[in-house]
Records
---
Amino acid sequence: MQIDIMEIVWVFVIGGIICIIGQILMDTTQLTAPRILVLFVVIGGVLGGLGLYEPIVHLAKNGATVPLPGFGYSLVRGALKGLESDGFLGILTGGIKETAAGISVALVFGYIIALCFNPKSKAK
C-alpha cells in the first residue's frame, strides 16, 4: 500500500476550507451554529444533486465526505441510487440506506459519551 502525499494534502486542504467557511460564518454573521450546520448539509445536497460535489469528493476523498456537506451529498446520492433501483419509494429510502452507518455511529457514540459524562444545564 503506497501513500500518496498529494492525496493527503487535498484531504486536509478541502476539509480545512470547509471548516474555515463555517468558522467565518459563525464569526461574521448572526447565524447560529445549528443553522450553519443545516446550511452546510443543504449546500452539500444541492451540489451533489447538480453533480458539482462529485469532483470535490474524487479530489479530496474523506476531506469532502466527512464534513457536513458530505452528509447532504450522501443523502442525495442515496436518493438518486434508490430512484434508479426502486423507483419513487427509493427516493424516500435511498438516502437513509446510504447514510445509515454514519447515523448509527453518531447515535452509539453519543449515547456512550452521555453515559460517561454528567452534563449540566447552563444557569441563566
Note: The chain has a mean pLDDT of 92.
---
Amino acid sequence: MLFDFYGEILTERQKEFFDLYYNEDLSLAEIAENAGISRQGVRDVIVRAEAAMQAMEDRTGIIRRFESQRSRAEKILAAADELKAVNQDRYRDAKLAELADQISAEASALRE
C-alpha cells in the first residue's frame, strides 16, 4: 500500500527498482544485472525508497486513516443491511427503506 499511496514521491530509479522487486518478483541479483550495478546497490535503493514512503506515512497517516475509513464504511453498510432486513420483516416502511438505501449508497461511495 505504501507504493500505491506514496510511490510518486520516489525517484524514477526507486520506482523502477521497487516495482521490479515487489510487483514483478525479480530478485535483487536480476535487477542488479539489468541495471549494471551491484546487488547491494539495488538493495540500498529499495531500502531508501521504503524508508521515504514510511516516513511520509508516519507524517501524514493517510494509509492509517484510509484503512479506518474503509473499516467504518463496512460497518455502516452492515448496519444498513440489517436495517433493511428488519424493516422488511416488521415495518415495510417505504421511507425507512429509502433511507437505508441512501445510507448504503453513501457508505459504498466512501469505500471507493
Note: The CA atoms of residues 30 and 80 lie 51 Å apart.
